[in-house]
Specification:
Length: 507
């Protein structure tokens, strides 16, 4: 039984007739713009950090929380946001999430100090955690299964991949030509436009029952503790008392969480969503993809700025091949996925992405952009772009309509938690490798720049590059592990080819 045939099945309210069919292009634009805005905000602040630090006089130890506060709220509250859409109506919850995101962006852009800015970034993460999973589930509500949904999902996947690199480009432009505050204020007009466009989106039926308060508290607190532990461990070490405490808390809460879900009448994460072997394997594969991809952005940015000496705009523009590669392959993948099983697209894509990371592991302090850096980025992007559409479709395909918000949230949560874990782990690996070449290489690099000591700077850059390239090899290993997991678990059967106007499968 297709998602459309199931709409309203087991719910308290039957789904209304879709109105989005009259304006499919506008509906897709609204959903894609929301996803772009939410994903973009995870990276747009990175390049503006020096300007933020100077403008608000933020201590070095607190600066990282301008980024981490967003990641904590985004990753930790995703499941709750997805289930809220199932229970209270996806379009309604989507509007609330975007409105909260816009309000928080305004507060952050006008923040007079460190604490208000960090609080606003956390509130942005809450809005993103509500909007992101409902945006994905709205595709299932507003586009018929088959060609239309595949194309919509291709655009959505492109926004998810391109958003991170667009954020780096836009962050550099806004910071250099306007002011760091505009990396947040730019969300206000964009978000208001998305809100205005939601009138074309169709609403789905709602799931019966009340919100699972116990599951929400247990699962959300467990994910928050895990993301906090990962973030703090990467900064302060894995033996730090707070890191160990947070990891222990996360282990206990995330062990209790599935037990509460098995007994709940209206669970936050219906365990039936994970009974499908292909869907569970897809979520684990996307967890690994997030692990490698987030770390790739981080280390490439450090390499370009610390070793090649690129400024904010040049760094952002250098990422354009990444955006172009993902966009091209997402468009191609949305067409190929109708004729080929997900495994036939995802596995070669992951192999190409791993090859791209091996290419980047050959970087030296003297590598050229056109000869080494750009080709490596483009190959990696083409591979990742080929994986996003089939894996995203597999994760939400054949899910009961009343649970598609939870399934969408699980997919995005897997990528976010994987990204946080991968960044913390590979950062530790990179630092240890660099310090074997030159003790405290990062500190030595800053000291060499302050003292105008070219010899010390050169030695430090050599050590840092060695550390970055070890991290790229680590990402290649992660993508290879994702490839093997996809081979074993992801669906190898044919895709459904339901065309608009064709009869639906009987229920």
């Amino acid at each position: 039984m297709s998602l459309e045939a199931r709409a309203g099945s087991g719910t308290g309210t039957a789904a209304p007739a879709p109105r989005a069919g009259r304006h499919p292009a506008v509906a897709l634009l609204v959903i894609a713009a929301a996803e772009l805005m939410v994903v973009l905000d995870a990276t747009i602040v990175n390049i503006a950090l020096p300007g933020i630090q100077a403008g608000l006089d933020i201590p070095g130890g607190a600066l990282a929380w301008v980024v981490n506060a967003y990641a904590l709220a985004f990753g930790g509250l995703m499941l709750l946001g997805g289930r809220a859409g199932d229970l209270f109506g996806r379009r309604r919850v989507f509007r609330f999430g975007i409105a909260l995101f816009v309000f928080a962006s305004l507060l952050g852009g006008l923040a007079p100090g460190t604490a208000p800015l960090i609080a606003a970034r956390a509130l942005q993460g809450v809005g993103a955690a509500i909007a992101a999973p409902t945006a994905l589930s709205l595709i299932a509500t507003n586009f018929a299964e088959g060609r239309d949904r595949n194309r919509a999902m291709g655009t959505y996947a492109a926004m998810a991949g391109v958003g991170s690199t667009v954020g780096l480009v836009l962050g550099g432009l806004l910071t250099q030509y306007l002011d760091w505050r505009w990396v947040l204020l730019v969300n206000v007009p964009a978000g208001l436009a998305v809100l205005a466009g939601t009138v074309v989106l169709a609403e789905a039926g709602r799931a019966q029952g009340k919100a699972d308060v116990t599951g929400a508290a247990t699962g959300t607190a467990g994910l928050l503790a895990l993301v906090y532990a990962i973030t703090r461990g990467g900064q302060d070490g894995w033996t730090d008392p707070l890191t160990v405490t947070a990891l222990g808390t996360a282990a206990v809460l995330l062990t209790v969480f599935p037990l509460t879900q098995a007994r709940a009448r209206s669970p936050l994460l219906p365990l039936g969503v994970l009974r499908d072997r292909s869907r569970a394997g897809t979520c684990l594969t996307l967890f690994l993809v997030g692990t490698g991809m987030f770390a790739t952005f981080y280390f490439l940015t450090l390499y370009m700025q610390h070793v090649l000496g690129y400024g904010p705009i040049r760094t952002g523009l250098a990422y354009l091949p990444f955006s172009i590669g993902i966009g091209i392959m997402a468009a191609v993948g949305s067409r190929l996925v109708v004729r080929h099983p997900p495994r036939e697209l995802a596995v070669p894509g992951l192999a190409v992405a791993a090859a791209g990371m091996i290419w980047l592991s050959r970087l030296t302090p003297h590598s050229s952009y056109w000869g080494t850096l750009k080709p490596g980025m483009l190959v990696t992007a083409l591979g990742l772009g080929a994986t996003f559409v089939p894996l995203t479709l597999t994760a939400v395909r054949n899910v009961d309509d009343r649970d598609s918000g939870s399934a969408s949230a699980l997919l995005t949560t897997a990528q976010q938690i994987g990204g946080a874990l991968g960044l913390a782990t590979l950062a530790t690996l990179s630092t240890a490798a660099a310090d074997r070449r030159l003790p405290h290489a990062d500190t030595a690099h800053r000291a060499g720049l302050r003292a105008h000591d070219p010899t010390l700077v050169a030695h430090a850059q050599d050590a840092l590059t060695y550390g970055y390239t070890r991290a790229f090899l680590g990402s290649a290993a992660v993508f290879t592990a994702a490839l093997l997991l996809a081979c074993l678990t992801v669906d190898a059967g044919p895709q459904e080819r339901t065309e608009p106007g064709s009869p639906q499968e009987p229920s």
